[in-house]
Amino acid sequence: MHVRRALIPLALALLAVGCSDERQPTGVPPAPVPHVLRWAGSVSPHFIATDLPFRQIAQSGLLASLTGGLSLDRNTVSFWAVRGAERSVQINYLSATGDTSAPFLRLTITDPVYVPGVGDVAVGDSVLLTATIDPAVIKVSLEPTGLQFGDPARLQIWYGGAAGDMNGDGVVDQIDAQIETQLLGLWYREGADSAWAKIPASQSVGDKAFVSALLHFSEYAVSFSEYAVSW
User: Fold this and answer.
1) How distant is the alpha carbon of residue 162 from its chain centre?
2) Residue 21: helix, strand or coil by DSSP?
3) Which parts of the chain fold into alpha helices (H)?
4) Residue 175 in 3-state DSSP?
5) 43-162+184-224: which CATH architecture?
């Protein structure tokens, strides 16, 4: 996911220019391919999960069934969501030494209404949800893919695990700061064969996090693209 430095000034210049019909290409523009942030080399890709209502913890590498139906096996977390009842899960990542942790993901769900291949979800019924974390890049897959919500689910992803190296070149400098404040965003795709697209999300640079309201489940990543211009 390394990015040539020469592309960054071009990307920032594109963002500063308003889009108009005169600049529209005659052909169909290529779908943007985002650069997904990588976990820093000093970050251990091991995780702990917390079922927030019950304050129970499962260690990565162990399969544990917890009160409330939360389980964590390697980089995958499964838990039950109930339509009409708020459920929240938080996943933290461990430091290289394993003695400290920092937040990676928090997911809050109250209203799953439709499961692809199953049908509508009645009030009080439960749905088994799974979050699978990529150990190389800051990305998570939420399943079942296409699960729909009445009241949007709330997804918060922290990208502090990149340790400030936004373009993955091993050096933290002003270019990384420009990427973070002007290009970085939350992206999604429906599956491996689908194109990535940027979604509305609020960013807190201080917290190194994005928050977004989800109407359905898919794959999400903290990413940027030199072609991510708002038309």
Assistant:
1) 13
2) helix
3) 7-16, 174-182
4) helix
5) Sandwich (2.60)
Strand partners, 203: 210
> Where exactly are the structural domains of the chain?
43-162+184-224
pLDDT profile of the chain (231 residues), mean per 10: 45 40 48 87 74 44 31 71 92 74 91 96 94 91 96 96 92 95 95 91 97 96 73 30
Q: What are the b/e assignments for 74-111, b being 16+ CB within 10 Å?
A: ebbbbbebbbeeebbbbbbbbeeeeeebebbbbbbbbb
pTM, two decimal places: 0.77
Contact 183, 167 (CB under 8 A): no
Q: What are phi and psi of 93, to 5 degrees?
A: -110, 150
Q: What distance in Å separates the CA atoms of residue 4 and residue 1, rounded to the nearest whole number?
A: 10
Q: Which residues contact 19 (CB under 8 A, 6 or more apart)?
A: 229, 230, 231
Residue 38 CB burial class (10 angstroms; 0-12, 13-18, ≥19) = buried
Q: How confident is the model at residue 10, as a pLDDT?
A: 41
pLDDT at 50: 75
The C-alpha angle 174, 178, 180, rounded to 5 degrees, equals: 115
